What does this fold into?
Amino acid sequence: MISRKISENLGKSSWIRSMFEEGEKLRKIHGAENVYDFSLGNPDVPPPKTVKEAFRKLVLDEDPNLHKYMVNAGFPDVREKVAAQLQKETGVPMSAQNIVMTVGAAGGLNVALKALLNPGDEVIVFAPYFVEYLSYIDNHGGKAVIVSTNLDTFEPDPELLRVKITSNTKAVIINSPNNPTGVIYSEDVLKKISQVLEDKEKEYGTAICVISDEPYNKLVYDNAQVPSVLKIFKNAMVVNSYSKSLALPGERIGYIAASSRIDEIGLLMSALIYCNRTLGFVNAPALVQKVIGETLESAVDTEEYKKRRDVLYNHLTSLGFKCAKPRGAFYLFPKALMDDDVEFIKRALKYNLLLVPGTGFGCPGYFRISYCVSMKIIENSLPAFEALAREFR
Ligand code: PLP
It folds into this structure.
């Protein structure tokens, strides 16, 4: 009964899902505390207290419009607050007119791509990448064009990008802080990318939109700054969510902020709002929009993540693993100790270590560790990493 395409896609296993299933088996045999599951990017720190309090208060709010349908872009007062916050952080003028509240970043990405793509339009994705981008681009008839990053820094190479852009390039997805590497793209690299896009837009007489997927932009360490794409690129759209910054992934809340510098921005905003409606989202969930509106200054405790990063990073590098030091998100992306990353993570299973192969992110030879697990699990896992590394000495 189901579509041929979906049926084929179901057959392609997701690495993260298969590691999760592997984990379930191991947990039954060894007990949950003896399985070191670094496969899932599900925040395990609680949402800030302010967020819980806002939920409690708003649930009891008697506002008769709180639970009704609303304008498809989302509550105007919430969009106004989101815009003001962005303006404060970036210095770029923003108003409610620039904002569409979305069903998480995933919803926002689908809305943005649907609004932009004609069949066969190309979307540049830098590898390693969040694998869902490929499905989202395909959802809207686009073609993903993969461009490798520099494997020492995991930052994009602007000149490599230049040769991949064609007259069909409609968008470039940027994800910084990055899943799976934790790397933050530098302002210098982003400015070079901007120059490349400008050159190519002139050459082909096209417009190329930068879609900046930023769900980790509040999870940064060592006082790192995430450069603002709204400042650097003319045709920029930020897609963001509160899944990671407020540890609310299940509540499905995020937004798109599009730059006023985009030509025909009014038309683009209408397209985004139309797509939010017709993709069936209608509007982002009402209650949590209001919660966000009241807690924009809040964020999860990044110190907790930083401690975990430091313990794992220091241990792995002392064991000889090569790894770009992540300055954001909650992932490490070390080089596997053998060329075949899939075989490597199979070997790791022997020690109850659940890792995800780089192949799953378009970057073979590496593996991802998601450190949103308790410090206790991390500490208990250290001898397992040591035993794994010993196999390759
Ligand atoms: N983009 C990246 C890079 C992610 O890692 C994730 C989730 O893990 C998403 C988007 C989706 O985020 P959301 O839960 O806000 O839809």
Q: What stands out?
A: The chain has two domains: 4-47+300-391, 64-294. Residues 41, 104-106, 130, 175, 179, 213, 215, 241, 243, 249, 254 surround pyridoxal-5'-phosphate (CB under 6 Å).
